[in-house]
Amino acid sequence: MAGLIGTVTLNLALDVTYGVDELVVGGSHRVTDIRQRAGGKGVNVARVAATLGHQVLALGFVGGVTGELVAEELFDAGLTALLTPIRGETRRTVAIVNGQDGDATIFNEAGPSVSEDEWRAFHDRMPWARLGVLACSGSLPPGLPVDAYAELAVRARHHDVLTVIDAGGEALVAAAKAGAVVRANAAELREALGNDISVEEGARQLVVTGATAAVITDGSRGMVAASKSGAWRALPVERVAGNPTGAGDACTAVVAAAVAESPEPDWAVVLKSAVAASAAAVLTPVAGDIDLAAYQRWQPQVAVQSL
């Protein structure tokens, strides 16, 4: 029986989308449509994992009136959450969608600063005994160190809980050194290890650094996974047009679910599901959703090569 998937979003947001007939800089606009829901990469991971039938627990910080709205939306979406209160106000992201062409103009607020006491409270509330895996993703709020996710990974290991960390740059290397399963895209990998490194070589290098496994998304070239047992590349079934913003989060959800079921999953099988889920996410207009029928259709068709 798979354990509970805990998803960590340290910089939660309320995503607000306004629809207007036509966006004119400097003009006054009548809003034709308003949508809002809890956002952040970890929340997207939780939504996808829940859609795929897994039990999830969304973890993060919330503050102020906006934080209350985030908590309410998670409840309304059927996602169980354990949220740590902070003094600052939870951030908003605002997207204005132009009705003429469908293009979105996005405004991202900075996240609230998290104090040492609030960070300690987050750790103290962690329900380690209930967790099968901890999946951490998204930006870090002001006040937290670059190795915050790595710190969580070290604490998780003390409780025999594996961690999946989606990060780039210094945070990716720190997560690998902490023994996490790391997940990144090709650009984030090269930000961490250098522009000249190949995806295959980079994934293997992260494992040598200490990662339990590394899963790297490589755009139209699919995905690469590496562990101490080997390395593999999975190729997409077909080119998919749509919104790619939630594809990486769908991949993280599949990886976390696999690790929750087994600390040493068959990474070739995991890649098949991850590629299919990522492509199915592109078909949906909102990050955190996937086209379940497309996922089920594509998953058996994904080709995996040993490297």
From TrEMBL:
SUPFAM superfamilies: Ribokinase-like (SSF53613)
Domain annotation Carbohydrate kinase PfkB: ranges: 21-285
Assigned keywords, A-Z: ATP-binding, Kinase, Nucleotide-binding, Transferase
Record Gene3D superfamilies: 3.40.1190.20
GO cellular component annotations of the record: cytosol
Short name of any one Pfam family annotated for the protein: PfkB
Entry keyword annotation includes ATP-binding: yes
InterPro entries, A to Z: PfkB_dom, Ribokinase-like, Tagatose/fructose_Pkinase
UniProt-recorded Gene Ontology molecular function terms: ATP binding; phosphofructokinase activity
Family named by the database record: Belongs to the carbohydrate kinase PfkB family.
The protein's name in its UniProt record: Tagatose 6-phosphate kinase
Species this chain originates from: Kribbella voronezhensis
